[in-house]
Amino acid sequence: MTPRRSTPIPPGPGQESVWDYPRPPRVEPVSKSIEIRLGGTVIARTTSSVRVLETSHPPVYYIPADDFVPGALRPTQGASWCEFKGRASYFDLVSGDTVVDHAAWTYETPAQGFEALKGRVAVYPGRVDSCSIDGETVTAQAGDFYGGWITRDIVGPFKGEPGTLGW
Questions:
Q1: Which residue, of 23, 32, 61, 112, has the fewest CB within 10 Å?
Q2: Distance CA 72, CA 86 (A)
Q3: What's the first-to-final CA gap in the chain, in angstroms?
Q4: Helix (H) or strand (E) holding 80
Q5: pLDDT digit string (tens) for 8-65?
Q6: Any idea what DSSP says for residue 8?
């Protein structure tokens, strides 16, 4: 039996449905203020991010590596593969005595169409103290694989919840 997705939630005024996002994904620039906190400290702040939009997924935000405080990104072992973006490599995030393994990733040589990701880093919002967009604290996408950022202007249902593996 093929798993069925839930009925998309109709977006209200000013909202986006993840079911209107494309597949393959699209990358778009974002000028909103992004802030990431770890160990009680801001480890990244930018107004120059991009977000990746893909059907059924909350957006994933990619921040310029240069907008992280020095020492916050520590390259680590391991890699994964995205059919669209290519090979991802990982970082541990560091803030004082706080270290979170494999909490961020990058595409050092992104695939064609995703060149805007080069030099940028995505963070799993559930592995840090908080991530915010224009002051709104985001909710992490469920599951331990996806790194989507859920805000009040994004509606689902979202891939990653129990029962969504086959979507």
A1: 112
A2: 24
A3: 12
A4: strand 73-82
A5: 999 999 999 999 999 999 999 999 999 999 999 999 999 999 999 999 999 999 999 9
A6: P
